[in-house]
Amino acid sequence: MSKLTKIKARTLRRRNRSKRKINELPDCPRLVVSRSLKNIQAQIIDDLTGKTLVAVSSSDKSIRADIDKASDKTEQSKIVGAAIAKKAKEKKIKEVWFDRNGYPYIGRVRAMADTARKTGLKF
Predict the structure, then answer these.
(1) 122: β partners
(2) Phi, psi of 50, rounded to the nearest 5 degrees
(3) Contact in structure between 101 and 32 (CB atoms under 8 Å)
(4) How many Cα atoms occupy the beta-carbon half-sphere of 95 within 13 Å?
(5) Residue 9: partners with Cβ closer than 8 Å, 6 or more residues away
(6) Is 57 helix (H, G, I), strand (E, B) or coil?
(7) Measured between alpha carbons, how far is 77 from 58 in angstroms, rounded to an integer?
(8) What CATH architecture applies to the domain 3-119?
(9) What percentage of the chain's residues is helix, strand, coil (to nearest 5)?
(10) Global pTM?
C-alpha cells in the first residue's frame, strides 16, 4: 500500500467516524465544514430531507468585503463562522451537530466553530 493510499484511508476513517456519531440522532441538522487551500465553506444540512438549509463560503459576494480585509485564513474562518450563525438564526436554527468532515479540530476549523458558538449557535 502506497503512502498516499494510507493517507486517504486514514482520512476516510476519520470522516466516517465523525459521521457515524452524528447520524445516531438525526433530529438535529448538522453543520458541515469543508476547507481547501484558499477557501472555507460551511453548510447546515437536514439529513432527514437531504437538503441544505444554510450555506456560507469565504468566496460569497455577501461577505467578500470583510474577507478582503482579513489578514489571514484564520480570520476568514471567523468571518464565515459568524455569517453561518447569523443566517442560522434567521432560519430559526438554534442547535446543530458539528461535522468537521474528517479535518482535525485545530486552526481554521476550530476558529470557525468557536466563532459560530460565540455568535449563538449551540453544538
Answers:
(1) 95
(2) 75, 30
(3) yes
(4) 5
(5) 1
(6) strand
(7) 8
(8) 2-Layer Sandwich (3.30)
(9) 45, 20, 35
(10) 0.85
Tell me, what amino acid is at 38?
Answer: K
Per-residue pLDDT of the chain in tens (123 residues, 90 and over written 9): 899 999 999 888 888 876 776 666 668 899 999 999 999 999 999 988 889 999 999 999 999 999 999 999 999 999 999 999 999 999 999 999 898 888 889 999 999 999 999 999 998
Q: How far apart are CA 107 and CA 29, in angstroms?
A: 24
Q: How many Å apart are CA 84 and CA 6, to the nearest integer?
A: 34
Cell of 49: 430531507
Quote the cell numbers at residue 89: 438564526
> Residue 109 corresponds to which amino acid?
V
